Every structure is written in structure tokens, then in C-alpha cells.
Amino acid sequence: xxxxxxxxxxxxxxxxxxxxxxxxxxxxxxxxxxxxxxxxxxxxxxxxxxxxxxxxxxxxxxxxxxxxxxxxxxxxxxxxxxxxxxxxxxxxxxxxxxxxxxxxxxxxxxxxxxxxxxxxxxxxxxxxxxxxxxxxxxxxxxxxxxxxxxxxxxxxxxxxxxxxxxxxxxxxxxxxxxxxxxxxxxxxxxxxxxxxxxxxxxxxxxxxxxxxxxxxxxxxxxxxxxxxxxxxxxxxxxxxxxxxxxxxxxxxxxxxxxxxxxxxxxxxxxxxxxxxxxxxxxxxxxxxxxxxxxxxxxxxxxxxxxxx
Amino acid sequence: xxxxxxxxxxxxxxxxxxxxxxxxxxxxxxxxxxxxxxxxxxxxxxxxxxxxxxxxxxxxxxxxxxxxxxxxxxxxxxxxxxxxxxxxxxxxxxxxxxxxxxxxxxxxxxxxxxxxxxxxxxxxxxxxxxxxxxxxxxxxxxxxxxxxxxxxxxxxxxxxxxxxxxxxxxxxxxxxxxxxxxxxxxxxxxxxxxxxxxxxxxxxxxxxxxxxxxxxxxxxxxxxxxxxxxxxxxxxxxxxxxxxxxxxxxxxxxxxxxxxxxxxx
Lengths: 308, 265
Prior knowledge:
Chain B: This is TIGR02186 family protein. Chain B: Keywords: Membrane, Signal, Transmembrane, Transmembrane helix. The structure holds 2 protein chains of 2 kinds. By secondary structure, chain A is mainly α. In chain A, 70% of the residues lie in helices and 7% in strands. In chain A, the strands form 2 sheets. Chain A has a two-stranded antiparallel sheet with strand order 1-2. In chain A, helix 1 packs parallel to helix 9 and helix 2 packs antiparallel against helix 3. The longest helix of chain A has 32 residues. Chain B contains 7 helices and 12 strands. Chain B is flat, with a radius of gyration of 25 Å. Strand 5 of chain A pairs antiparallel with strand 5 of chain B.
């Protein structure tokens, strides 16, 4: 059964889109990430124009983050104050990001830039996470208890001014790195159509030393608002949010996510992180291969645009 | 159509004696004309649009019987989509990565182009005159915008443009698409691809006599996205803010709804 996507302007098989949404939803529920970093490349692999894939991906992440955030809120693993500080940076970053997005699109380098960003970020973060989780698994095997508070663990981040107390997270931290992190993620949200959880979660854990239990819920909270904002701005400037595509992806995604959450609860933290790392690496490698392999056609044609 | 046909019969019967007196090869005093008509002036694209066939009927008026008999009349019917700039980009390997390095923008070319003719158009008329009138996929004017230092590139980019348009179905040709159903009545079948752009299209019919264009007729055809598709496209472009808000709202409802439905665990 085919369905016509009015903004992407092409007909697609509804079951492939549903399957994509459900699979990504399952993984996002399992790992507590929005799934945008998977959905956007998948849509691009399925010939959806990258412009539409990115904007629609951001919209889809809104839905998948909300159900995740509510679950965390009920469990009390969401720090609203920390999330709000992140959000301030996030909204500013998303605004800058949409501007850069439109500029790259006029230049004809948007597709390449999206792929390159994905490759660089996914492979770096995937490799770092894999390394860390393998070390943690080895430690668990040797039944050494991981030292939670080592002396000298505080890094330069913790010497910055403008300190704030985040009660729920039980940390005392400068607002500067939090806003900066939010800003960087906001830029990525609008250029890559991701929530940015796959970067924000490790950055919060390893850079800001925020306790792991509140990290996922708090990042999801921030992601809801930044992706919602990005959806609005993309709709207003690039007219590239496909409501039909987004709705199909969201419905399938949230259902898949519920099952993913259950599976995720049965797995251990470090195993979960190792799996996520492998997944992130796989998507990155797939995109890298696409950049290096000789394309079927070295020419491409785009309608409109006085870009030369 | 019936009225047209009957008037045609009258015309032909009136002219025939006069035409017979004109020696072969000399121009007839009465000029041939061309009439076209279609069953619809609007094509609706619904959500399950898989492409469509458009049939155009036409008639030659004042046709010379002798020329008709020896097949000296040729008809070409085209459907041109809305015009816009088109940018062709070429990738090159830079540091191992394929990236767009060169681009060329062509002025106002039709986004879609479907052609039907009585035979191969290159055998109807010579290339320079086809280029002149801009009939045929290989003869559409493709003028680059701005100064292109290396003029050899223009040919390559033009070829690439035509090849890409043909391969994604937006440009089509059918050299048997025009059939004469009687001596002066013809029927042209044009294929509308599934990815046809919406907007104002133009049906153009060209009549060639012994390889020279002698008459031309055009007729507008609107392609509209119907129902929900049209409403969505309109909303996205005319009320982008409200549209974005609805997109976000759907996401909120979907996400929230799911967590309510699956609350039990």
C-alpha cells in the first residue's frame, strides 16, 4: 500500500515507513534516546530528500521523547531545573542551526555536510562509548566496584563560575557548560534532525559528571522542547516538515518504544551502553561508506535555486 | 468534437476542388490549421496517484489531400510542466570523499516534459530548426545562468540534465504517441509521471508539413493535488506557523497518548 507524501512529493510504501518507525522506536525506548540519529539516515537511505528527512526527523523525536520523558518523570529520574538550563542553550543553538541549514542548502552542500557531521559524530562517540562500556564490563567481571567518587575526579568544568545547585541530580555545577552543551545540541538538532541524546547523555555523564540515573530523563525533557521548536522553525523557513510521514513514523515509533523500554530494563547499564555504541558506530560506518563509494551518478539535479 | 468534425467535413469539401487546381509543390493559398481538445482541463493528484495517461484529440484543417495521402504531415504534441530554474551539480572525489564541486543553473526549464509524435522528431525536422522552436527533449533551450568560463562543460551538464530527467520519468517521449484516426483527425497519448509537479502545465501541438512547422496550438492544463494532499501543501506554504504547530501538537498527542495507553507496567 502506497501513500503519497505531500511535502516530500513522492509515493512511499506505508509498511516500510511503519516498520522503520517501529524498529527505531523500539531501539529508542531500549536505549533512552530519541532515535533521530537513526531515523534521519534511514529516511535518506529510502530516498526521502535530506531536507525533508531532517525536519521530519526532528518532529518525530518530539513524540518519542515525550513518552520517554513521562516515564522518567513518574519514576522521579528527571531534573527539571537542569533540563531548563540546558534548554536555554538549546533554543539558541537551534535558531543558529536552522540558519546554517538554509545557507548550506543554497550552497548545494547540505547533503554532504549532513553526512559528514553524522560520520564524524557517530564514529567518535560510538568509539568512545564502546571503549568505556567495555572497560566497565571488564571491571564488573572482575567484581571490582567502580569507584563513584575518586579524589581528583573534578575536571576543569567544575572550576567554572556561575555555580548552581541541582537538587534532584545532587550536584553543584556551573551553568556555563550546561548552557554550552545545550547550545551545541540545539545546532545539531536543526542540522541533523536528531534530538542529540546520543551526544548529550555521554557528555552529561563523562564531562559534567551528572549521575547516570537522571541523565536520560533530563536529556529527554530538554529534547522535547528543542525538537518542537526546531520543527516550528523548519516548517516556517524551509517548508520541509512532512506531516504525513511524521505521523506514520510517530505512531509506529511510540508503540515500538514501549516494548523497547521493557527490554531495556532487563539489560544492565554497561551492556546497554555497549550495544548503543555498536549501533551508533554501525550507522556512522554505513554513512562513511556512502561518502567514499563512487556514486551511481555523479550528477544531480535540483529544482529552483540560483546557486552557483 | 462532433461540431468540429462536421465543420471540418464542410471545409474539406469546400476546399478540395480549389486545392486540386494548385500545381504540386506550390503553396496553397489556404493555410493549414490545427485544432486540439482534451477531455479535461484539470488533472487531480490523489494520495494513490500512480501517474496517468492524458489523451489529446486534434484535427488538421484545410489539409491538402495529396500531402495527407503521402504522409507529409507530422504532428508533435507536448505537455510542458511549470517552469523553474534547475541546478545541475557534479560530484568529484575530494580527499576520498565525493562532494559537489561544480554546478550549473539553467534558466526557466519545464520541470516535466512529455512528448508524443507521429515519428522520431529528428526525422520530422532538422535539429537546428527544432532547437529554434524548442521542441523535443534534446532541443529544449537550456541556457546556463551567469558566465561559464569553460563552454565545453555546458554540453556535459545539458546531457546530464536530460539524462537525469529521463531516468526519473519527469521527461518522457513516445515517438508513436500520435496516431491518425482518420485522414485529418489524430489522437495523442501523453504519459503523466507519478511525480508530476503540480501547477499550470501547457499542452502544445505542432503541425509539420514536409518538415516545416506550419501551425501551432496550445492549451493550458492544470495539475492539482486534491483533497488532503492539496490542503496539506497549501497549509505548509501559506500558514507555515500554524502548520508547524499542528505537527508539534500531533507529536505531543501521540507521545502522551502512548504513555497513557501503556501505563500499566
